[in-house]
Amino acid sequence: MAGSDEVNRNECKGAVPIHTWVLISNFKLAYNMLRRADGTFDRDLAEFLDRRVPPDARAPEGVSSFDHVIDTSTGLEVRIYRAAATNNAGAGAVTLPILDFLAGTPSPDPFPVILFFHGGSFAHSSSGTAIYDNLCRRFVKLSKGVVVSVNYRRAPEHRYPCAYEDGWTALKWAMSQPFLRSGEDARPRVFLSGDSSGGNIAHHVAVRAADAGISICGNILLNAMFGGTERTESERRLDGKYFVTLQDRDWYWKAYLPEDADRDHPACNPFGPNGRRLRGLPFTKSLIIVSGLDLTCDRQLAYAEGLQEDGHHVKLVYREKATIGFYLLSNTDHYHEVMEEIADFLRANL
């Protein structure tokens, strides 16, 4: 099994509800069709297969969304989610018109702004992908705040550091918007969040923010994607067992990193031999969600330990029997308990 592209479907089925198995297995099938052995990627087919949903200003289930271009030079777009208010007559949800919302002034009541980076191993998905649209709506409901989902450029067409640059652009934009400021001090209460490659992006944007003296309220990482040249115990043990193979991961790193780089590049292995320690840096607090059946779980645990060794606050939530993507469907205790952890983290650090 090790080193192949084969996945043990029986072990996957036994670990997750059938709906999750179908969802992630379909993604796996599509992903295998899109990657080419020569390192190229079938982007046209990827766009066709990506199940996307449009933004919806009508506020279904109390959350409205709209797309907004924040950098015309690169075409960088974000999808903004906000909770709808209920009018005094109790006649349903009402939402401020988009242009009025964007031109709004700071709110006296503090609320979180979650800058979210979708997963997809730097190559797949978008801010409009249905599973991420649903997750962002969930974040609005549990936070009572605003979610800004970043449609960053993807590999291999746009290699390192394009995704990080787009994340930095999105952060600077969010910090500068009056309508995203709140509280008596009228400041932006920004959290960074992401899953898989999005979690990796959140880390690197947070480091740059700390270097620049920009205050972030917290990082929320879901199965963040890290790597390295030397295989870990979990990578050897879980290779091909729960939806993901090392061959998959190696392909994506080769597609994203500079062409002459290996997996000890700091983008992939931030605390590795070529990385940078963060002791003495005003790095933000972190909530780190780790699935015990994710083959890179040892990487994520080592990342959390590295932050703690450097004197930074870390809340680690380790779900021993969870697989990748458990937070995308509300059909397990893992999902509901982790959503409570996220809500508590947001409240505590607002």
The biggest sheet amounts to: 8 strands, mixed
Radius of gyration: 20 Å
CATH architecture: 3-Layer(aba) Sandwich
Major sheet: order of its strands?
A: 1-2-6-5-9-10-11-12
CATH evolutionary superfamily: Alpha/Beta hydrolase fold, catalytic domain
CATH topology: Rossmann fold
Q: Number of helical segments? A: 11
* Shape, per Cα inertia axes: globular
CATH class group? Alpha Beta
Query: What percent of residues adopt helix (DSSP H or I)?
Result: 25-40%
Q: What is the CA-CA span between the terminal residues?
A: 46 Å
Q: Structural class per helix/strand content?
A: alpha/beta
Total count of strands: 12
Q: In the residues, how many domains can be counted?
A: 1
Order of helices and strands: HHHEEEEHEHEHEEEHEHHEHEH
How confident is the prediction overall: mean pLDDT? 93
Low-confidence stretches: 1-5, 88-92
Strand content: 15-25%
Describe it for me?
There is one protein chain. The chain has 350 residues and is an alpha/beta fold. It has one domain (20-84, 93-348): 3-Layer(aba) Sandwich (Rossmann fold). It has 11 helices and 12 strands. It has an 8-stranded mixed β-sheet, sandwiched between helices. The longest helix is centred in the first third of the chain and has 17 residues, at 18-34. The radius of gyration is 20 Å and the shape is globular.
